[in-house]
Fold each of these.
Amino acid sequence: MAANSEANSDTEDQDKEYVGFATLPNQVHRKSVKKGFDFTLMVAGESGLGKSTLVNSLFLTDLYKDRKLLNAEERITQTVEITKHTVDIEEKGVKLKLTIVDTPGFGDAVNNTECWKSVADYIDQQFEQYFRDESGLNRKNIQDNRVHCCLYFISPFGHGLRPLDVEFMKALHEKVNIVPVLAKADTLTPTEVKKKKIKIREEIEQYGIKIYQFPDCDSDEDEEFKQQDLELKESIPFAVIGSNTVVEAKGKRVRGRLYPWGIVEVENSAHCDFVKLRNMLVRTHMQDLKDVTRETHYENYRAQCIQSMTRMVVKERNRNKLTRESGTDFPIPVVPGVADSETEKLIREKDEEVRHADHEPESHQHHHDHDHKSEHSSVHHEHSDPQSDPETPSDQIRDEAL
Ligand code: GDP
């Protein structure tokens, strides 16, 4: 009897210690499966390098049914146009909305200087749209069109990177996660592939191009995982082969390319890095690509945007000191979390400048006015950031903008 009651109190103790937050991952899982996932992939590089074929092979869909190919004459003056294809794919109840952004016409014209510009503009436009949406009143159901990854196709026929490749990657590396791929790898022997990869990696380093960096794996990961991670890093640029046809190889039907001398299998890792690339994109790094887009590339864009808005405000303030008193004339929306250290520093410096420029009686007047204003906006101060000093200039800006 005594033993029994002891056992009972044991389970009670356990129950007491079990709050239940261990189920959080399941809750998150259920919610995200219900919501579905989305991913936006951009493919860039000279036309004819096999971009559309590879995308179709990657996601086993025909995304380019309605594509119209231009003849040589039409391509001479062609500008880079951006096209978007969206497909909803489902696997074991998990839905993925996949958007492919293509850049037909890239490198096609006779004069290709700055042909990366429309691609860069496109990426910026998506950031801008998101920035507007999340600063707006209704932040529910924001359509996120930010580009999470750009597969950049490098020609297998050149000697490493061409000037256009360097220019493109340098222009975009701070806006998007660039993953370089060596196109049509079946046109090269394994030794040539190896040499080209080394050359391209060296050039990427030499020209200071910042491609997508796979996150370092934790020291407590198992050996197999570490080995896979190392192999992945050494595969850059992924040597890829695409095919839209199914052929028969050793009694099995596989995606491949049939030549008089044999069959190249897309999904055979002895033939190319297709499977490695697909696993990286879909199975292992999709979430990281999205995180880096949000935390690094979008944050950079947002910070730049806020800084230029601040500059506008400061200019406006200098131009018309009355703005300070009227307090409602700023032409910009209030952005949540403006307390960016760079921005605050900038505003503080500018505030100092303005204060020095003011002559004595006026600056006294300003101080008085400011005190007066902070009385009126005390409620707002409480809401904006209770920890921040109510006298800081950035708070003034937020107040005035409101
Ligand atoms: P895109 O203009 O970059 O989209 O290129 P396409 O996917 O339209 O491919 C252009 C041509 O290259 C087509 O004739 C394809 O059959 C061929 N092609 C595509 N992928 C490969 C590949 O991996 N190896 C080889 N040898 N040819 C390919």
Note: The chain has a mean pLDDT of 76.
Amino acid sequence: MRTCDMFCRVIDNYGDAGVSWRLAQAFAAEYGWAVRLIIDDAAVLTAIAPAASNAPADFVPGRVAVVRWLEDPDRPFAGFKGLAADVVLELFSCRLPDVYEEAIARRTAASPCAVFALDYLTAEAYAEEGNGLPSPHPRFGYDKTFLFPGFSNKTCGINRERDLAQRLNDSRKDEVRRRLFAQFGADPAHPFTLYYFSYPEMPVERFAQMLAADNRPLQILAAPGKASERLKRALAAEKADCVAFVEAPMVPQDEFDDVLLACDAALVRGEDSVLRAQLAGIPMIWTLYPQSEDTHLVKLAAFARLYVQAIDDAASRSAWLAMEDFVNNAGACSDAWTRWRNAFIGLQKGARVWRERLFQLPALADSIAQLAEKKLKS
Ligand code: TRH
């Protein structure tokens, strides 16, 4: 049985905790590892994973312990006994505590330890170039290996569980929709439901104008948050009669996939929710986490180059690109929504082709576990 320590600092929002929790669960459930997720803001984690509040506080085989990262240089977390786990993951450049690095150095003097630094998911070229590269620790000399999730076999792939294809099977759609929509007060018979989980930085008011200008019925299922509150207000101001606005609650992460499966399309954000919408096989609009110097637009362009290859008609491709330009770059296309919706059949076909491709990619937990075994046996 392997032990694994994963270190995570919550920079913003839910994504850091969400990606870490998902991966930790996969190590525990699929590999039987005893995992400790050492996290500085457990409240963010429990907002999307209520089960984390009943997690063990130390290693248990096949389970994820949740441990608060303390700002104490000698005692980075309760239960730290000066020993490094078999597998250590530094998530999203969070930087391991000094005393933990010393523990790795002591361990590696006697037996191997697999130390990884995991980055964000991206389609940019650096993911292929940097994946698997070692970096010797400047003081202790042990190797830390960089891991880049991404959209090719040269990266370590995507966060997806072994049973996911089964859970996201389209045959479950109707049953899931009936159950969840009844719970949320949404209409299960509505012809078109868009799940909405975005950032307030997107041009929300202009988006509301576009929705109001298109007279096809639309049901919005809105996740909690500032962007949804603004969209609700803006739609009311537009008197958008053909738009029904339903507020969805925050759901546990293991139910989030079903929410996406139940919807016809999704406008989602960040890293994890957008990937889950793709895995659910529904057309998606991606709002990226806004970054200084517009680096998120570079990230979008790299992804768009791949994603549009799955969409085979030119009108649908250009409708998707115009919508992405609008939501991420306040692009000027004032009929972006109407064009996107006109292209829906083509986008739907593309979403299914893309989903097939995603299921051919390596699963992140498998890539890391295999590499870890190699390192631990070397
Ligand atoms: O919350 P985010 O905006 O997180 C972001 C991104 O990860 C971004 O890449 C990162 O740089 C930044 O944080 C610091 O979006 P994301 O990635 O989609 O994460 C949301 C998580 O919340 C995801 O795991 C799904 C989960 N979730 C639920 O479990 N239930 C819900 O009801 C909702 C709305 C989300």
Note: The chain has a mean pLDDT of 97.
